[in-house]
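Reopening this one. Same input as before:
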Amino acid sequence: IVLPICVTSMFLDNQRECRIELEPGVQISRNVFLPEQQKARLRDHYLIYVDCDNRFANARFSFNNVPLHGRLIEANKVDSNCYFVFNIMRMYASIFDLSVDKMRQWRVLEVPINLIHFGRDNRLAITAGSGGLAIFADRFDASEHAIRLPNKALFAASKMCNEGLELDGRVLEQRSTQIWPVMANKLDAKARPLPLKYRQPRLYLLQSAGRSPQHGAVLEAVSIPLSLERFDPVLLKAGAGKALKIDRYTMQLARSGSLSMELPQQFNDVEQVHISLKGQVCSIGRKTKIGIFVTLHGQEPNSPFMILPGNPPFIEAQSAFSPFEINDRIFMSAAPNRKCMISVGLFPGRWEQYSQYGVDRNVGSFLVKDLVITVSKTENIDLGQGFTALY
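Same output, byte for byte:
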C-alpha cells in the first residue's frame, strides 16, 4: 500500500519545524541547568549546539553574560563518526557555488568550563548580527515531553540553502531531547496543519566526554614550499619562470595542472591533522573566478579522493597579486587511506565548471606563485569518541 505523503511520519515530523526570525540586535536566550555531579568530569567539553541559517557569522554569543569569542563551526568537523558526510556536501556545494559552511547543518561553539555553574541555571544567549538571524525550532503540544532532532550526520539536500519548506532529508535521531520546563513562545495553532501550540528553539548545550585537555593545540607542524619546477613545465614557461600561468591554452598543452606529494610520514598515524595551502594569485586581464583545490587520496592510481571541506568553490583573482589561504582540519579516519597523498589542483575557472564543461572561452587566465603547504598535528574535540548529552 502506498500512502499519500501527507500522512507519512516524515511529513508529520517535518510539519514540526518552524523558523524564529531575529531582527538585528534581537537576542534569544534560555536557561540551562547542569547537575552538580557533572562537576567531577573535569575533562569534559561543553559546546553550544544550534541549528540556524547562514547568517551566523555576525551573531554574538554569551554564556552567563560573558561574551564567547570564536565562531560557529560545523558540528561534523569535531565528530570523527560523521566527518565523511563532507564529501557529499562538497559535491552539492560546488554546483551552487557555495562553501560547505554555508550549507544548513548543526553548528557548535565551545564554552570554557570555568564559565559553567554546576548545580544551578546557566544563561545561554545568541544576539543576531547586522543581517539578522533565523533559529530553527520544533513545534510541539503541551502533552509532549520530548523531541527528536535531525541527525547531524546527514543534511537535507532540499533545504541545503536554508530556504523553502520542502521535506527535511535528515533522518531523525533515535534518541530524543527533553522539552524545556518553560514552554514559552506560544504559536498560533492555525499557522500549520498540525495542532501544535508551542515551539522550542534548536539551541542546546552539548556535553562531550573529554579526551583532549589541550583543545586546538598544535603539537607539530611541517611547512613545505611547493617548487614551481615540480609542476608541468608548460605552466612555468608561460609564466616567464616567475609564476605558473593557468589559462585555457596552457591547460590544453600541459599534461596536468596539479601536483601531488606524500603526506609527511609522521602524520600517517595521527588522529587529526590541519592542512593549509597559502599562496598568491593574480588575474590576467579581467577579474576572474579561479579554482584551486586541495585533496587527499591514496597512492594507487584512480584511488578515491577527498576534497578539503573548507575548500571554497572558487577564489576571485584580482588584477594585482593578492594572498589566499585554504585550510581545514581533517580526521584521518575519514581520509581515503592512512598513507595519503596531498594534491593541489589549479583550474582556470570554477572547479565545477571546468570538470563539467572542460576548457572553453568562459574560463579565465591567472598567475599563481609562492605556494606553501603546512601540515600540523592537532588536538581537538571529537564528539565521536565518547558520551554526549544535550541540555
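So the earlier flakiness isn't reproducible anymore. For the record, Residues 85-95 form the longest helix (11 residues).
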